[in-house]
Design goal:
The protein contains 6 helices and 3 strands; from the N terminus they run ααααβααββ. The chain is mostly helical and about 140 residues long. It has 3 domains: about 45 residues, no CATH class; about 30 residues; about 55 residues, no CATH class. The chain has a 3-stranded mixed β-sheet. A hairpin with a 5-residue loop joins strand 2 and strand 3. The longest helix is centred in the middle third of the chain and has 26 residues.
Length: about 140
């Protein structure tokens, strides 16, 4: 752009000349072989090659389908609330009764989760202003 700006003294007339020359090229080109014209005049036309629009259209439809599939999968997901997950116990303290139930089970796969999975707990506030799980 800098070369165009610095190379001409009158930018408006240069752009008009460029537009006029491009129009002349299009107008003096070969006419489109269409039966509805008697070939005595030139008709500007555009030929759309649909094969070049197939990929973007396919990608758009596939992305919409993916979003719909994700929405359906999330709706059918058996994900529980965050309070029922074992990781919530790491964030907040638990009372001694729950702690004693998991002793000796830490060396087995799923041992801690199996020890507390049947326990009902409540998230309550303590006197110190902290949150703690206690058995219900």
């Amino acid at each position: 752009m800098e070369k165009i700006w610095n190379g001409t003294s009158n930018l408006d007339s240069s752009i008009q000349n460029l537009a006029l020359s491009m129009t002349n090229i299009v107008c003096t080109g070969t006419p489109l072989p269409r039966p509805e014209y008697d070939e005595t005049a030139y008709q500007l036309g555009t030929t759309v090659q649909w094969k070049w629009l197939a990929l973007p259209a396919t990608m758009l439809l596939l992305s919409i389908g993916l979003v719909i599939a994700i929405i359906i999968q999330i709706a059918r997901s058996p994900v529980e609330a965050w309070k029922s997950r074992p990781l919530a116990f790491l964030r907040y303290g638990v009372e001694q009764e729950l702690k004693h139930g998991v002793y000796g089970r830490t060396n087995k796969y799923g041992g801690i989760e199996n020890a507390v999975v049947k326990k009902k707990t409540l998230l309550t506030g303590t006197d110190e202003g902290l949150w703690k799980f206690r058995t219900a």
